[in-house]
Write a structure and sequence with these properties.
Blueprint (H helix, E strand, L loop, with lengths): L9 E2 L12 E7 L7 E5 L12 H15 L8 H14 L7 E3 L1 H12 L1 E4 L2 E6 L4 E7 L4 H5 L6 E5 L2 E2 L5 H8 L6 E8 L2 E8 L1 E4 L4 E5 L3 E5 L7 H14 L4 E5 L8 H11 L5 E6 L5 E5 L9 E6 L6 H11 L3 E5 L7 E8 L4 E10 L15 E2 L18 H12 L2
Parallel strand pairs: 14-15, 15-18, 18-19, 19-22
Antiparallel strand pairs: 1-6, 2-3, 2-20, 4-21, 5-12, 6-7, 7-8, 8-9, 8-10, 10-11, 13-14, 16-17, 16-21, 20-21
Helix pairs in contact: 6-7, 7-8
């Protein structure tokens, strides 16, 4: 995907340290069948190559050469060597979506998938100018936002201990903590220091935001499909209905996906019972079709907004509504990620995210590396400097969606 500016942003979440990696048990949970656990035991024999090449013996020979010739032999980190060997082995598949996750990164990774962690809810950057850690922005509805923390606040101390930009990788460990506990932050804003005592809570990193637009149009922006997104969607639509919403705009622009089951659950709320949502095919050419299982929760007219950064689960929701003629799609062609990854957790605490299925639209067409073409292709004006922050008066895609809904009876 296109990125206009890369910032080193750290989500404040807990890491755990685990060890060991020889023979292991795998418990599978998929981005599609999330936390649908299936135990798979892999032995050394199952991993042996069909050729005569003995990987274990070869690595041992390489290690002997390292021991004999490597200048800083006394500084070798055996655990890092083993981790690097596994990472390289998996990376050699050449699949950008398949990767090995070391044990000390696994909790962070799974919390990123679910979109939930315990903390105060801020994104941070290491600011070279001030030499401090700076609040990039507080997550909407988080304890930090409610307490008054603002984007640009310079973090001076946490619980009485001062930190600088050099402490960026570790400062989140001191800000996060047990749910219900309190953390003391001293921040600097416009040259003035302020003190905040903030109670840590379980944070939804990507909450759905809503707005009532003119002509009884309800607007929902979905940043990603995290754990609980479908339930949040249902609650937010009902909230809009209570405010008088008769029609709906679902904004999936810049939504890179997430848990596929959350997207299919939302589709189920909008489609007639028995409609095809998606179909998937695995490496054995076995096909599985996901149907809507209940009568629609919401029957109002719907427009879906997409762009070149709408991917994966976003494309699943968009294509299911488009192919079933339930909603019109407005914007630009989507990213084109039509494959599903499964996260396998290993007994040593590490994990393997691996591509396991390709999915197809209800009409049976592929999305992968193709994308979805909107019913109404609408480009943003050249004056828009960032597709991530479009001013309302320049948002021609949203304006088109509103126009289409207003024209419908």
């Amino acid at each position: 995907m296109k990125e206009e500016k890369k910032l080193k942003i750290y989500q404040a979440i807990m890491l755990i340290l685990l060890t060991a990696f020889v023979t292991f048990m795998i418990t599978a949970f998929s981005m599609y069948t999330y936390f649908n656990n299936t135990d798979i035991t892999l032995s050394a024999d199952q991993n042996t190559s069909q050729s005569n090449f003995d990987l274990k013996s070869y690595l041992k020979k390489v290690r002997n050469v390292i021991n004999k010739y490597y200048l800083w032999n006394d500084e070798i980190d055996e655990e890092q060597l083993e981790k690097g060997a596994v990472e390289g082995y998996v990376a050699a598949l050449g699949d950008e979506y398949t990767e090995y996750i070391p044990a000390d990164e696994m909790q962070e990774y799974t919390e990123n998938i679910t979109g939930n962690f315990v903390g105060i809810g801020i994104y941070m950057i290491a600011d070279e100018t001030s030499g401090r850690v700076v609040v990039y922005y507080p997550i909407p509805e988080s304890p930090a936002e409610k307490a008054g923390i603002q984007a640009g606040d310079i973090i001076i101390s946490v619980d009485g201990t001062e930190y600088t930009a050099d402490d960026f990788e570790n400062i989140s460990d001191y800000i996060k903590g047990e749910e219900g506990s309190t953390v003391n932050l001293v921040i600097e804003r416009n040259g003035e220091r302020k003190t905040f005592d903030i109670v840590r809570e379980r944070i939804n990193t990507n909450p759905i935001t809503i707005e009532m637009l003119e002509n009884n149009i309800g607007y929902l922006k979905l940043p990603s499909f995290d754990e609980g997104t479908a339930d949040d969607f249902e609650a937010k639509v009902k909230e809009l209905q209570a405010e008088g919403a008769k029609k709906l705009i679902i904004d999936l622009r810049n939504n890179g996906g997430g848990i596929v089951g959350e997207a299919t659950d939302i589709a189920d709320m909008l489609l007639e019972k028995g409609k095809t949502i998606i179909s998937t095919v695995d490496n054995q050419d076995e096909k599985e079709v996901t149907f809507s299982e209940k009568d629609p929760t919401f029957t109002m007219d719907v427009i879906v907004l997409v762009n070149e950064n709408s991917a994966s689960a976003s494309e699943i929701l968009a294509c299911s509504l488009q192919d079933n003629e339930r909603a019109k799609i407005v914007g630009t062609k989507t990213y084109g990620k039509g494959i599903i990854q499964t996260l396998l957790s290993l007994t040593d605490g590490s994990g393997l995210k691996i591509t396991t299925e390709e999915y197809y639209t209800p009409k049976g067409t592929t999305i992968h590396k193709v994308g979805i073409t909107p019913d109404e292709v609408v480009e943003l004006p050249d004056t828009v400097t960032s597709i991530y922050a479009v001013e309302r008066e320049q948002d021609t895609q949203l304006q088109k969606a509103m126009e289409l809904l207003q024209s419908q009876s």
